[in-house]
Amino acid sequence: MKKILIIDNSIVIRSAIRNLFVNNQGLLIYEANSKEETEQLINENNFFVVISNLFLNDSPNSEILELLEKKSIPTIIFSSTLEKELLTKHSNIIDYVLKDFNGFRYIYKLVSAMKFCRNENVLLVEDSNTVSNQIKQILEKILLKVTIVEDGIKALELLNQNNNFSLVISDYEMPNLDGLELTRKIRALNYYKNSPIIIITKTNENELKTKFYKYGANDIILKPILQEELISKVINIFLNLKQIEEIKAFNNLIDKNIITSSTNIKGEIVSVSEAFCEISGYTKDELLGRNHNILKHPDMPNSIYKELWETISSGKVWKGELKNLKKNGDYYWVKAIIEPNFSKEGKIIGYSAIRYDITDRKLIEIISITDGLTNIYNRRYFDEIFPKIINSAKRKDELVSFLFMDIDHFKQYNDKYGHQKGDEVLIEVAKCLKDSLHRSSDYAFRLGGEEFAVVYQVETKEKAFEFANMIKNHIENLKIKHEFNSASAYITASMGLICKNANDIIIDEIYKQADDLLYEAKRNGRNQIKMNT
After folding, report:
1. Cα–Cα distance, 470 to 203 (Å, whole number)
2. Beta strand extents in 8-62 (DSSP E only)
3. What whole-number distance in Å separates Cα of residue 493 and Cα of residue 485?
4. Per-residue pLDDT of the chain in tens (533 residues, 90 and over written 9)
5. Three-state SS letters, 141-205
6. What Å distances lie between residue 175 and 125, 128, 273, 458, 522, CA to CA?
7. CB 7 within 8 A of CB 77
8. How far apart are CA 513 and CA 518, in angstroms?
9. How far apart are CA 54 and CA 47, in angstroms?
10. Nearest to 200 by CA among 169, 174, 226, 232
11. Burial degree of 193 (CB within 10 A; 0-12, 13-18, 19+)
């Protein structure tokens, strides 16, 4: 049982934080409202994390922090004032969180990740002792175990010998084997082919960033290392790993479910298994004599069922994946194998089907292509789906629009308002992009950092620009205050738009073309769109 201590004068605040973890098994919550009470509790218990206010009645000058540092207890400051200097003044402070609604959510996220990643192993590849020691100290604050090696060759040797590293953080500029080549080689290792990799570098070049993402890096951090940024990115990665592990564990429990049914020549159900009834929510009496279209989900196109029926009615076996509708309105995914039943004379007399529940696998697939922070598609899915969109449009001789954007002066926003607020901006911009799309052929992506992209199809270049301009205005109309934005009083984005016939698009060049237009928009004053001629 892991113990958490909440320190605050207000019983309301303490209760609110306690309620965050009421359903979180494995946590034991303690409360204190004074320095004296805190000292007694920490002498009697081992707390894996403390959530503390800055000021108490008997600690008017933050003496409580000195006590917690003396005991080396990882501490999250939860206060109505922003005190950045405390991060360097007190070695045990993980982060500071403002007392507002989003602050409560961030505390839950941070503690949940720390609970999950406690004692997880991180491989740090860095040839600078100063930088490696700085990163090690930051990661150890969130209870990670850090192993340091000086170059990529030693890292590969260690990875080949051990399969216990949950995360690799590597410098780019290193002797013998740089971070780019190391990333490529790690992705070739079977055990680590999907493991998260963060690259740290002093080189801020988009071409290099593109290479890293294509080689398989999950994220990039620019030097000098900012503690809040590193913790935020590592926490997001471990929360994603936590989600995947939870889904895999649940998937093991349902692995043995077998869903079967059979129909007559008309497609009317004549038999179903109990597993079928359990997953669909229907009883046998409700299913027998009915057609399988009772399970048809509105998300599935009619063309799938047309292909299915044409295949099995011609005497062949159909295999595919179907999203089905439950009786209660929920859904489930199945991998289905449907084949005809023949009489002695070789005539089709009915059909039999066996299905495997793949709902959780589908959820894992969704997680793997979804950005953990913003909940829109990630760079991995962009690299996967964009060539398919282009090839499909080529066959139809259609236009394809690629809108590449960057939030204006985002670094200054983070420096002024903090990385927690910066994350909230990324979430709001992503939601704005998603809400602006209304067709299944339109996609929104977070490509990394503050960079986003939208891929969509329209009939003319004029409509492509109108749509991009609408998105640009929607972002500014979020009215998120940004006093360091030279283009507006609010958060805005500069954009580069490529709209071409798909047959004229070279996939390896379109990203750079859009990036060049984006930077032209920035040079011309920001909060605008530059489009190809």
Report:
1. 34
2. 27-32, 49-52
3. 10
4. 889 999 998 898 899 888 888 777 678 999 999 999 999 999 999 998 999 998 888 988 888 888 998 888 889 988 877 666 666 677 788 888 888 878 888 888 888 888 888 888 999 999 999 999 999 988 988 889 999 999 999 999 999 999 899 999 999 998 889 999 999 999 999 899 889 999 999 988 888 889 899 999 999 999 999 888 998 899 888 888 877 777 776 655 544 557 889 999 999 999 888 889 989 999 989 999 999 989 999 878 787 888 899 999 999 999 999 999 999 999 999 999 999 999 988 999 999 998 989 998 888 888 889 998 999 999 999 999 999 999 989 988 999 999 999 999 999 999 999 989 999 999 999 999 999 988 777 999 999 899 999 999 999 999 999 999 999 999 999 999 999 999 999 999 999 999 999 999 988 899 899 999 999 999 999 999 999 98
5. HCCCEEEEECCHHHHHHHHHHCCCEEEEEEECCCCCCCHHHHHHHHHCCCCCCCCCEEEEECCCC
6. 11, 11, 62, 49, 35
7. no
8. 9
9. 18
10. 169
11. exposed
Least Cα distance to 386 among 409, 369, 367 occurs for 369
How far from 229 is each of 198, 411, 430, CA to CA, in Å? 12, 11, 19
Query: Strands across the sheet with 443-448, in order?
Result: 443-448, 451-456, 399-407, 493-501, 529-531
User: Which H or E element spans position 336?
Assistant: strand 331-342
CA 179 → CA 174, 192, 203, 217, 355, distances in Å? 7, 15, 12, 10, 44
C-alpha to C-alpha distance for 347 and 368, rounded to whole angstroms: 45
Alpha-carbon radius of gyration of the chain: 27
Q: In this structure, which amino acid lies at residue 419?
A: H
Distance CA 425, CA 478 (A): 10
Q: Is the separation of the CB atoms in 238 and 146 below 8 Å? A: no
